[in-house]
From TrEMBL:
CDD domains: Barstar_evA4336-like. Residues 15-35 are annotated as: Disordered. Belongs to the barstar family. It comes from the Bacteria. This is Barstar (barnase inhibitor) domain-containing protein. Residues 76-168 form the Barstar (barnase inhibitor) domain. Gene3D superfamilies: Barstar-like.
Length: 169
């Protein structure tokens, strides 16, 4: 039996409090599940979601496994060492295996996120951004642009009926 755990989901561009589902998102997708004693604690609905600070690393791993089992391409960014735009974009290039034409700019990151052809044709995408909360505290001026890019990219894929989920944690 599944125990539903409430998860606060916010729009990444505003990063304000309160739930805000993606367009077309059903109400039940705003919860997460505890399955087989494993605290998932993280939503997989399309869109950009904040991973609550109390969610566990095991929950992130479970979300990545669950997405992969659903046929999605799932990957994680490690933002714990990010201190500026350059290190953020370098981590994106590494973790997302960005192609050679990635130009190391915000615009080229967006272009890559709406292409993803080098990832084949999965049933969707999951990107877990670990260290997001620390990045907000340590470099608050840095997070607005990539959060907006993530929202635009998830909207792009939603319009093509391919779910993209970005978890900011």
């Amino acid at each position: 039996m599944r125990n539903l755990l409430n998860v606060v989901i916010t729009g990444a561009a505003s990063l304000g409090p309160g739930p805000r589902p993606c367009p077309g998102q059903r109400e039940e997708t705003m919860t997460s599940h505890r399955e087989h004693g494993e605290d998932v604690g993280i939503p997989l609905a399309p869109g950009v979601h904040r991973w609550l600070p109390g969610a566990t690393e095991a929950g992130a791993e479970a979300a990545l496994r669950r997405a992969a089992s659903e046929g999605r391409r799932a990957t994680a960014l490690d933002l714990t060492a990010v201190v500026d735009k350059e290190t953020f974009l370098a981590e994106c290039a590494r973790a997302l295996d960005l192609p050679g034409w990635f130009g190391g700019t915000w615009d080229s990151l967006y272009d890559c996120l709406i292409d993803l052809s080098w990832w084949g044709t999965p049933r969707g995408y999951l990107i877990v951004a670990r260290g997001w909360h620390a990045l907000e505290r340590n470099a608050p001026g840095l997070t607005g642009t990539p959060a907006g890019i993530a929202e635009d990219a998830t909207a792009h894929w939603l319009s093509r009926a391919t779910p993209m989920t970005v978890l900011l944690g």
